[in-house]
Structures are given as C-alpha cells and as structure tokens.
Amino acid sequence: MESFDIALFYWINHARSPFFDAILPFFTSPYAFLLFLFAFFVALFPLAWRKKIRTIAVAFFLFVLGYGISDLSCSHILKPIFGRKRPFASLERVYYYTPEKKFVFLEKPIKKETRSFPSCHATNAGFLTVYTFFLRRQTLFLTLPTAILIGLSRVYLGHHFPFDVLGGFFFGSILGIFLGIISGRITKNYGRRL
C-alpha cells in the first residue's frame, strides 16, 4: 500500500500545470476555510428566518467545538501516534511549495522533523463538510468540491501523501457525523433535513 501511495503522490505532484500552480495554493491557505464558514451561515439562514435561536446557538457551539477538536486532535494526538514524515522530508524529486509561497523542485529531501499522517487540512475539511451537511444538505454543493480541492492541494504542493489526505477525510468525517447527530438530538430535530 505504501508503494502505491508514493506512486500516486508522484503522479499528482508531478502533474504540473500553470492553472493548478495558480489556484491550488489558495486551497491550502486559511482563506479556503472561509468557504466553509460561508456554507455554515447559508445553512443557518433558514433557522434565523424562523427565529430558532436555540438551534442556531447549538449548531454554532458544536461547529466551533468540532473544529477545535478536529485540528488539535490531528496535530497533537494522531500525528504523533503515526509519526509519518512528509513527502518533502522523505522523498527525492518533489515539487514543494515553500513557506515563502514559491514552488521549488527538491532533488533531495529537506532535513526537517515534521509529521504527515493524517493531513490536518483534510481532517478539518472532512469535519466541516459532513457537519454542515447535517445542518443543510444543499451546502454539499459548495463544501464537497472545496474539500476535494484542499486535499488535492496538499499533495500537489508536496506537503502530504494521498493516504494522509484520505485518512484526514476519514477522521474528520467521523467527528462530523458524531457532532451532527448530537446537534440534531439536542435541538430535537434528529433525522430531519432542512
């Protein structure tokens, strides 16, 4: 499986395109998560229209709580457990997007202690996509493409392996399902789709 993961990484990372060079850095930046925030407020709008303040308060609290759990558990629990090195620190011939926001081609790995599995970007995106879907399923038209582009960007920019991204989506989605169900039960709307 690891050899397949590495081969898939090279296939995505070496598929260079001026178009992807221009747009994918955006989806790895914090600004991409504004799209999830927009989808979340779209999901809350019908509730605000109906003046369901309790439902809005619960949804917002669990949104913030879930994002915090997703991000902190990924970086402080899951990554230390798995301890996998990032592609730019473990492979040769990697296109790498630097902190200075430039693409460089690395002939040799960078000597840096850094962990790769799972991708926290993907974990957060998975949580936000699934949790927001529980609030209003139509948000999936915005959140799912955003999550996919975030995952693709992490590989294209040389920061993660494809399985890091899939693992992140998995962990984040589980959390999103869990908190989505809790939100529905607390507000007595369990099983209901707006």
Word description of this protein:
- With 194 residues, the protein is mostly helical.
- The protein has one domain (2-186): Vanadium-containing Chloroperoxidase, domain 1, CATH 1.20.144.
- It contains 8 helices and 2 strands, in the order αααααββααα.
- The protein has helices spanning 2-13, 18-27, 33-49, 53-82, 87-90, 120-135, 140-156, 162-186; strands at residues 94-97, 103-106.
- A two-stranded antiparallel sheet has the order 1-2.
- β1 and β2 (103-106) form a beta hairpin.
- α6 (120-135) packs parallel to α8 (162-186).
- It is elongated, with a radius of gyration of 18 Å.
- The N and C termini lie far apart (41 Å).
- Mean pLDDT is 90; it is low at 189-194.
What would the keywords be for this entry?
two-stranded antiparallel ribbon; about 190 residues; disordered C terminus; 2 strands; mainly alpha; 8 helices
